[in-house]
């Protein structure tokens, strides 16, 4: 059968065969691209080589079978097509993102989409292809958004096709350029999700068919609706025995407001792990999403150089290539060697290189409207690649694209080098990581005990922990991280308001009486969702953390277990320590928690200081509510007593609020038996040696004030 499809070609380059992938005859010729792949020369055909024409229909069938049994000829052909980037700018585009709750299968679905489009080989070894950071692979979570370009051969609408649009829009058969942006799922990385969605036309809302709509599913759905994206509902893990698609569809209607009975809103039942039904996701992206205006059929009219505008939605630092900007082309086109200007800084740059990710960085000649790719320009400083900036040709003046609102940090912590001489290297590493993650705020600070360091603001505790691990993994820095704190609002008597995130600058009790009129702490509105049997333990946990209950409801679930949803107003300082660990512990891991900021509230706050041998250790200072000061003071002094090594002199460990000592522990000194060598004689001989030892310890203690070393690893 394959022989009947072969035809003789004209003279060609010896040793190469031409494989033409073409759609139906109704498709314009621009959709078919000849791709040359190496082959072994034959002795009987040194000047002629066979040309095999494989239809889009046969390729679709071959990719719909299980991955282990996919024909090798089709797989190699699709891989060859995916690697030819010369015609990418002439294809009709779709830009989409994958959004969902944590562990609902975003990264696994992305792997299957890349395999079906021939972007990566179908050898069964692909796991978290787009999770490239070491911390992502170790923790099994997505931290950074990743963009990748794919080519999909669409064979046209099927017989039961119903348009999702009022004008009856139906895509034509042919090849389409799909730009995938994989987003994180954790609430701490919502800024990554928000700016990535700004470059998209549609979003795949992935929901676990065994768990249903979760807290973060609602959050990312609302972000996508704010960007006016087309939503494609996807029910993953539908092959599991516990899956209940009907209940999940009911949840989508009642919680998210998605009418699953309308054309274009039906949930797609898939299994990303096995690949079952994933081909329908690619079809839905083409059929349920319209192309950007002016990109229909991949036409070039209006997509040349003039009126070029590109939105910078991500950037990172490459130690060999410098600053790399990830852009979404909104208008026109840009080529290598063009002069571009930043709307934010007004500085001009020359485009040194550009291209797309598929999934590795591939250089191309041009990027046109509708494409997502990267640009390397001669940027001198890392701060010049501003997230939300607009690039345009230097010879034109254009209206800037809508950028991103700056984020407000929720958690602050100090980061210090273990060796004080490494501060400059640490600061440079922090700035490079902050370029890659613009939700982090950085400012210098100094500590009497720890020396020079940086005060960083994060969106949550996981965000802080991931940033710390990336500093250690990618830059090899051994660092000290102080206890996390939150921003408090101080109103002074002269009417001035100040946000204080560093406990060093927080007023003491003695200073408050004459200078401060009001102290406020940040509040959050938290939603806890758990099985009904754990309601009592979670209500007690929230009460212990000064939570105020606002609402209790019983939403429909995708399983037979009845769940309860509780809304609380909690102080942010209460949930940035061990709240999540306690929540998972008391609910056996079934509870989920999501929060959003909810303004400030007046509170009775105090600063807890710690003194080691009468010397204040400012790096351990904590701001907390007065009702919890005594308990924390006793716990911390006992812990410090356990970890501080004994000295040759007595060490006092004190916890104070203002000038009042509320907890104290004493670390006894080492003592040598100086009378061991005395045998008999008058007791004054022993007393003389003991007094001499006492005087020596007094001098040693005077010299040792402030020099007690606290082990940092504990």
Automatic annotation (TrEMBL):
* Subcellular localization, as worded in the UniProt entry: Mitochondrion inner membrane
Q: What is this protein called?
A: Elongation factor-type GTP-binding protein
One GO biological process this protein is involved in is:
positive regulation of translation
Annotated GTP binding lies at 100-107
| Source superkingdom | Eukaryota
Cellular component aspect of the GO annotation? mitochondrial inner membrane; mitochondrial matrix
InterPro entries given for it? EF-4 (IPR006297), EFG_III/V (IPR035647), EFG_V-like (IPR000640), EFTu-like_2 (IPR004161), G_TR_CS (IPR031157), LepA_C_sf (IPR038363), LepA_CTD (IPR013842), LepA_IV (IPR035654)
- Please report the stretch or stretches of sequence annotated as the Tr-type G domain: 91-293
Q: Which reaction equation describes what this protein catalyses?
A: GTP + H2O = GDP + phosphate + H(+)
């Amino acid at each position: 059968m394959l022989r009947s499809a072969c035809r003789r070609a004209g003279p060609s380059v010896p040793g190469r065969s031409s494989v033409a992938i073409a759609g139906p005859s109704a498709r314009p010729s621009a959709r078919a691209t000849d791709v040359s792949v190496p082959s072994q020369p034959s002795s009987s055909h040194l000047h002629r080589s066979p040309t095999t024409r494989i239809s889009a229909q046969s390729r679709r069938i071959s990719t719909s079978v299980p991955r282990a049994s996919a024909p090798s000829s089709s797989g190699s052909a699709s891989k060859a097509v995916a690697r030819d980037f010369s015609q990418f700018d002439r294809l009709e585009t779709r830009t989409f993102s994958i959004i969902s709750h944590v562990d609902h299968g975003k990264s696994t679905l992305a792997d299957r989409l890349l395999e079906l489009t021939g972007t990566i080989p179908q050898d069964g070894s692909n796991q978290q292809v787009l999770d490239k950071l070491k911390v992502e692979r170790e923790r099994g979570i997505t931290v950074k958004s990743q963009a990748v370009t794919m080519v999909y051969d669409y064979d046209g609408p099927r017989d039961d096709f119903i348009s999702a649009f009022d004008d009856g829009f139906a895509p034509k058969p042919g090849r389409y350029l799909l730009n995938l942006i994989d987003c994180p799922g954790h609430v701490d990385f919502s800024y990554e999700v928000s700016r990535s969605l700004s470059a998209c036309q549609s979003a795949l809302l992935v929901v676990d068919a065994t768990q249903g709509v979760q807290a973060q599913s609602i959050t990312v759905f609302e972000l996508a609706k704010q960007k006016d994206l087309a939503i494609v509902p996807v029910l993953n893990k539908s092959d599991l025995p516990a899956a209940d698609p009907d209940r999940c569809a009911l949840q989508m209607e009642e919680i998210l407001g998605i009418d699953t009975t309308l054309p274009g809103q039906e949930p797609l039942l898939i299994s990303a792990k096995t690949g079952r039904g994933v081909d329908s996701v690619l079809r839905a992206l083409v059929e349920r999403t319209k192309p950007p205006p002016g990109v229909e059929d991949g036409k070039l009219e209006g997509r040349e150089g003039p009126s070029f505008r590109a939105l910078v939605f991500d950037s990172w630092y490459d130690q060999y290539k410098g600053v790399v900007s990830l852009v979404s082309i909104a208008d026109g086109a840009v080529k290598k060697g063009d002069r571009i200007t930043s709307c934010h800084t007004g500085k001009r740059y020359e485009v040194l290189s550009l291209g797309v990710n598929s999934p590795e960085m591939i250089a191309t000649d041009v990027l046109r409207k509708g494409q997502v790719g990267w640009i390397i320009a001669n940027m001198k400083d890392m701060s010049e690649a501003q997230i939300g900036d607009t690039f345009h040709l230097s010879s034109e003046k254009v209206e800037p694209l809508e950028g991103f609102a700056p984020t407000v940090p929720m958690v602050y912590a100090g980061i210090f080098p273990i060796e004080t001489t490494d501060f400059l290297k640490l600061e440079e590493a922090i700035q490079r990581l902050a370029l890659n993650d613009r939700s982090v705020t950085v400012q210098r600070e100094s500590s009497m005990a720890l020396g020079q360091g940086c005060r960083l603001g994060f969106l949550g505790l996981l965000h802080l922990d991931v940033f710390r691990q990336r500093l250690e993994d990618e830059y090899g820095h051994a660092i000290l991280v102080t206890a996390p704190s939150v921003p408090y609002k101080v109103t002074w008597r002269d009417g001035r308001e100040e946000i204080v995130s560093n406990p060093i600058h927080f007023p003491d009790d003695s200073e408050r009486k004459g200078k401060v009129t009001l102290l406020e702490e940040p509040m959050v509105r938290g939603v806890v969702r758990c099985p009904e049997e754990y309601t009592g333990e979670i209500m007690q946990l929230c009460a212990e953390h000064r939570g105020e209950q606002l609402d209790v409801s019983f939403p429909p679930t995708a399983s037979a277990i009845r769940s309860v949803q509780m809304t609380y107003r909690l102080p942010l300082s209460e949930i940035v320590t061990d709240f999540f660990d306690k929540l998972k512990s008391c609910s056996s891991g079934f509870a989920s928690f999501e929060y959003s900021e909810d303004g400030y509230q007046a509170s009775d706050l105090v600063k807890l200081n710690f003194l080691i041998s009468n010397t204040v250790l400012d790096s351990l200072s904590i701001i907390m509510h007065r009702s919890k000061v005594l308990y924390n003071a006793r716990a911390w002094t006992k812990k410090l007593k356990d970890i501080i090594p004994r000295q040759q002199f007595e060490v006092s460990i004190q916890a104070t609020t203002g000038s009042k000592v509320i907890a104290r522990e004493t670390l006894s000194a080492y003592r040598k038996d100086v009378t061991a060598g005395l045998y008999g004689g008058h007791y004054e001989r022993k007393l003389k040696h003991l007094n001499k030892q006492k005087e020596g310890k007094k001098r040693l203690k005077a010299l040792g004030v402030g020099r007690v070393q606290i082990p940092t690893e504990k």
